[in-house]
Amino acid sequence: MPDSDARPIVSIRDMHKSFGHVEVLKGISMDVPKGGVVCIIGPSGSGKSTLLRCINALVPIDSGSIRVANFDVHSLTTDKERLALRREVSIVFQQYNLFPHKTALENVMMAPIYVLKEPRDEVRARAIALLKKVGLAAKQDAYPGELSGGQQQRVAIARSLAMRPEVMLFDEVTAALDPETVKEVLNTIRELAAEGMTCMLVTHEMRFARELADTVYFTDGGVIVESGPPAVLFDQPKADRTRAFLSQIL
Amino acid sequence: MQFIWDWFRWLYQTTGINLTIFYDSFDRHRFTDGFLMTLKLSLICIVLSVLIGVVGAWLQGSKLRVTRHVLHWYIQFFRNTPPLVQLYFFYFGVGSLLRSSLGTGNQPLVSNVTWAIISLSFFAGAFNVEIFRSGVEAVPKTTLEAAESLGFSRLRAYALIVLPLAFRISLPALNNNLVNLVKTTTLAYAIAVPEMLYVSSQIWSDELNVPVMMNVLLVCYFGLVGVLVYVMHRWERAIKVPGFGA
After folding, report:
1. What does the pLDDT read at residue A87?
2. What is the pLDDT of residues A191-217, one digit of tens each?
3. How close does chain A come to B164, measured CA to CA in Å?
4. Is residue B177 domain-resident?
5. Coil, strand or helix: which one is A53?
6. How many CA atoms lie within 13 A of B111 on its CB side?
7. What residues make up the domain containing B54?
8. Three-class secondary structure of residue B241 per DSSP
9. Nearest to residue B179, comparing CAs of B88, B49, B90, B34?
10. Is residue B71 in a domain?
């Protein structure tokens, strides 16, 4: 369970982001306690993915502030500073984005070896353990092209975990998967959450959000329309917009 | 070995097929030297032009506009002008300019062989930049983003992820360009680089065996390019990744 008394590990204040003339995020504020599991739901184009990318400094923000652990993400300027942040925050993408010319094991090992400069043997042992954890010990020598979507996504999760992050971001990680393999990926995330990993998920899996999240945020048109514990947000939504959205998908 | 040379002499005496490059030790030596020169030009230019291609494709993603502009005009220049004109430009133009401006008299600073290497490498390199660029662009932006999100610097992501993938995509086009490069080394003839075509023409001037030497040249280039293509295909297969690039 999240430790709600302590300082939040992710803290966002009045964050704005535009692409050209289009303002995608119009003042987002949220706090995520350490160990918390937050789900962000909402219609396509509401800026959910951009929000996660901003937290990982993949996308620079225009105004407001983002604080992750001890980093002021909005004021990071050098690659070195961004690297330091990315040791704390890791992101998993919808399209897995594994390195296709490396085996599953190499995919997991690459960043710790080349970015964290940790000794190869140590990294290898940890990578094997991580692949085992996501249920892919037998596939360590397979190339991404030889794995199913769900397996690739689990390798991607292991690859992120290999950086030993404090916070994991999941950007619609099951959206590209067929229904059967969705389950194996969600189980992996479920285990992570149970171990106390801070997780932020952008997802369309409402049942999963309801089961796992401490707080659910409903975003639309670049703002947070409503947020609260899943039981409240899903069963007694206050805003009309939330009700309309939920009635369409539930 | 002597009996082989004797056999070629016998061949000449009985059929008129005059392969002096086998039975005449003087011709044999100059032809061997010419062959080795062609081999040397080819290998050095292949390596240099591939290096130019890799570095150029990397610089095309540079944030500096000046760098991108210089690169753009480099490619335009070498792609839109004939390689023979480029050779002349370097050897007679730049070469003599260097000589007069540095006051070294008639002593050339840069030998004709070096000019040929420089000129041909830049020529093939311009195409290689474009070939690698198309390969780099075929690597999904999201793959690079994943590398970035794992903390890879741009240079490291390029070296470890983008380039190996781009290389696999680019190999077929690169093959074509390198085959062309090997054949284009014959142009070095024009600035008196003693490569295979140059020595062959010397030999047929002396021995008057033009048709025979023409056939020898064809066979030699056919074999040389054949070996290159074979090696490149082997390499293509060796680095093929299951499920990537079909």
Report:
1. 85
2. 999 999 999 999 988 988 998 899 999
3. 8
4. yes
5. helix
6. 5
7. 34-239
8. coil
9. B49
10. yes
B4 found inside a domain: no
Beta bridge partners of A223: A220
Q: Nearest CA to A55 among A71, A40, A44?
A: A71
Q: Provide ipTM, 2 decimals.
A: 0.85
Interface of B with A in 50-109 (CB under 8 A): none
Helix H or strand E encompassing A218: strand A215-220
The token pair at B226 is 């054949």
Q: Which two tokens stand for residue B187?
A: 């142009």
Query: 């001890």: which residue's tokens?
Result: A70
Q: CB–CB of B21/B216 below 8 Å?
A: yes
**What number of H helices and E strands is found in chain B?**
12, 0
The residues facing A170 across adjacent strands are: A92, A201
CB A8 within 8 A of CB A31: yes
pLDDT digits (tens, 9 = 90+) for B125-169: 999 999 999 999 999 988 999 998 998 988 889 899 998 999 999
**What CATH number does the domain containing B182 carry?**
1.10.3720.10
Partners of residue B143 in chain A, C-beta under 8 Å: 97, 99-100
Neighbours of B232 (CB within 10 A): 17
Secondary structure of chain A: what % helix, strand, coil (to 5)? 40, 25, 35
Interface subset of A 152-171, CB within 8 angstroms of B: 156, 159-160, 163
Residue of chain B whose Cα is closest to the Cα of A161 = B150
Answer whether 0.90 is exceeded by the pTM: no
Of A212, A208, A149, nearest to A1 (Cα)?
A: A212
Strand order in the sheet with A215-220: A89-92, A167-171, A198-202, A37-41, A215-220, A223-228
Look up residue B212 and give its two tokens: 């025979």
Least CA distance to B152: which residue of chain A?
A: A115
CA A171 to chain centre: 5
pLDDT-derived band at B86, boundaries 50, 70, 90:
very high
Cβ of residue A110 closer than 8 Å to a chain B Cβ:
yes
Q: How many CB atoms lie within 10 A of CB B92?
A: 12
- Residue whose tokens read 């080349």: A114
Q: Which string of b and e fits B138-169 if b means at least 16 CB within 10 Å?
A: ebeeebbbbbbbbbbbeeebbebbbbbbbbbb
**Structural domains of chain B, count:** 1
Strand partners, A12: A30, A66
Length of chain A: 250
State whether residue B143 sits within 8 Å of chain A by CB. Answer: yes
- Report pLDDT digits (tens) over B179-209: 999 999 999 999 999 999 999 999 999 999 9
- Which residue has 């730049």 as its token pair? B94
Give the one of A90, A100, A160 whose C-beta lies nearest to B165's C-beta. Answer: A100
Domain membership flag for residue B63? yes
